[in-house]
Design a protein that fits this description.
Oligomer: single chain
Number of domains: 1
Shape: rod-shaped
Number of strands: 2
Order of helices and strands: HHHHHEEHH
Number of helices: 7
Distance between the termini: 71 Å
Strand content: under 5%
Helix content: over 70%
Largest sheet: 2 strands, antiparallel
Radius of gyration: 32 Å
Structural class: mainly alpha
Length: 230
């Protein structure tokens, strides 16, 4: 009888232990699910922030592309006057400012990517998307910014030439009007001719790299939105 009672208590104890273990495993499983859910929610939030970041950059790129196209029209009027050997006319004073203005300076944001890095890139479950995001913000966008440095080449000399050869005055409360000190000699000045042509060439180059980077940004934006099922 004592053996039977001991055996029953032993079975009961083992059963209790099994139930406790099962309870612990269930609790751990629920906790893991909750943590996974939190990670997924955080990933979604970070990706949505990244979408906003890229969309903001795309708007900046589009705006700058349109501005450069506008500035090239102004520069084109001056180039046309030079090529057609037209006599100087004071109406051209309205075209010099935008015709000579720097247009390549733009700094795009990477705050969405930095937020992901601060949390840890492993938060992105899609390995291919994670790689695309890293390549874009660690390689493509820095190279894009580096390519814009050509705008600053001989900028100091150009500004010095403008100061020495033009009177600058406000134009109808908007913009600046450049009036040449010696209009007759301006169109035969080799430095001026070189500057106006080089400025147009730079703008053509900048338009190309801006459009290329806009395309790259839009491709990444599309991939992130697909991951968000938007």
């Amino acid at each position: 009888m004592e053996k039977n009672i001991t055996r029953k208590y032993l079975k009961y104890a083992i059963g209790e232990i099994v139930l406790v273990v099962i309870g612990i495993l269930i609790a751990l499983s629920i906790n893991n699910l909750n943590e996974k859910r939190k990670d997924i929610d955080l990933e979604q939030k970070l990706l949505k922030n990244l979408v906003e970041n890229i969309e903001h950059n795309c708007r900046q790129l589009e705006s700058r592309i349109n501005s450069i196209a506008h500035y090239r029209k102004y520069g084109g009027v001056i180039i046309s006057a030079i090529e057609n050997k037209l006599s100087y006319h004071d109406s051209l004073e309205n075209y010099f400012h935008l015709g000579l203005m720097n247009t390549g300076n733009i700094r795009l944001s990477g705050v969405g990517y930095e937020a992901i890095k601060n949390v840890g890139l492993e938060i992105i479950r899609n390995e291919m998307l994670k790689k695309e995001i890293m390549i874009f913000f660690e390689e493509i966008q820095p190279e894009f910014h580096a390519s814009l440095k050509w705008e600053q080449v001989d900028a100091a000399d150009r500004d010095k030439f403008i100061d020495e050869h033009f009177i600058q005055s406000p134009k109808d409360r908007v913009g600046v009007k450049y009036t040449p000190f010696d209009a007759d000699k301006l169109f035969s000045d080799r430095y001026f001719i070189a500057v106006i042509y080089k400025t147009d060439l730079r703008r053509e180059y900048f338009s190309m790299i801006l459009e290329n980077h806009l395309n790259d940004s839009q491709e990444l934006l599309k991939a992130v939105k697909m991951e968000l099922n938007e």
